[in-house]
Amino acid sequence: MSDETKKPTERSGPEASPSDDELTDHVSDAITTTSDRPADPTATMDQEPAEATEDVVLEEERVKDEIEIQIDLLKDPDWAVRREAVITLGEMGDERCVEPLARSLRDGDWQVREAAVEALALVGSPAVDPLIKQLRDWDIRKYAIRALGKIKDERVLDPLLAQLRSDEFKEDATEALVELGQPAVEKLVAGLKDKDENIRKQAVIALGRIKDSGAVDALIERLQDKDWFIRLTAAAALETIGDERGREAIKPLLQDPDLVVKMRVERILASWKKRTATA
């Protein structure tokens, strides 16, 4: 048999087998591509949110535990410990702190009560409704009024205005409305026409202390009030605001039938003139 007959037959064309080098490269590429791909992408995606959720739960439990610790400290016989607990609860700002802080408004130590007022103000809007309910309680109404005056929420306005009718708490309510400032002006201006003299008097006082020029026209109208004290207080409020329209408007009070009003207005105008000259 010749050498040609011993040589294996070679196939050519589309059916030809790939060379060893080509086959090796193909397998290598396939292995590399597979190793670059995550083994289970859905497992990785699912794991991260689960861990995040667990962290949130743990944090909530930690905060809850801390709140409960501070609430327990409100029962401590040492007023300093109770005060620090009140301050801490206020800084947490969690609505779960509201009820314990509201109870602290009746604490036996005034420093704890003062701290509770400030703490409730820090909690803010979540404390409004519970504090409004506390206005029914004579013993802690003063502190509830003060706390409401520190919270910038329109829900506090009507309850505070209603307290202007009270002889015992009108000064506290006036102070609270002054602390609220400009947001209280519209309601106070409306109060200038109230039938209750207490409302009108305290509204004039509050507007004079807030010093909002938007109240000038309404205060000028009160210069004609039937109550001499309201006329006088309106004149003083206009001086405090310092609008020149008010200065001209109070001059007719120099002829007021009430002697006290006449004498006080003379001093108001003299002071106003001096201040303008030195400005």
List the topology elements.
Elements: H1 3-6, H2 20-36, H3 41-73, H4 79-92, H5 98-103, H6 110-123, H7 128-134, H8 141-148, H9 157-162, H10 170-180, H11 185-191, H12 197-210, H13 216-222, H14 228-241, H15 244-250, H16 259-278
Q: What key attributes describe this structure?
A:
single chain, disordered N terminus, 279 residues, Leucine-rich Repeat Variant, mainly alpha
Structure description:
- 68% of the residues lie in helices and 0% in strands.
- It is mainly α and 279 residues long.
- It has a domain of 71 residues: Alpha Horseshoe (Leucine-rich Repeat Variant).
- The termini are far apart.
- The N terminus is likely disordered.
Average pLDDT = 84
Q: Which consecutive residue ranges, at least 5 long each, have pLDDT under 50?
A: 1-20, 30-35, 41-45
- Overall geometric form: elongated
Q: What Rg do the Cα atoms give? A: 39 Å
Proportion of strand residues: under 5%
Helix-strand string: HHHHHHHHHHHHHHHH
| CATH class category label of the domain at 56-126 | Mainly Alpha
Q: Give the CA-CA distance, first to last residue.
A: 131 Å
Report the structural category: mainly alpha
**For the report, how would you describe the main beta sheet?**
none
Q: In the CATH classification, which architecture of the domain at 56-126 applies? A: Alpha Horseshoe
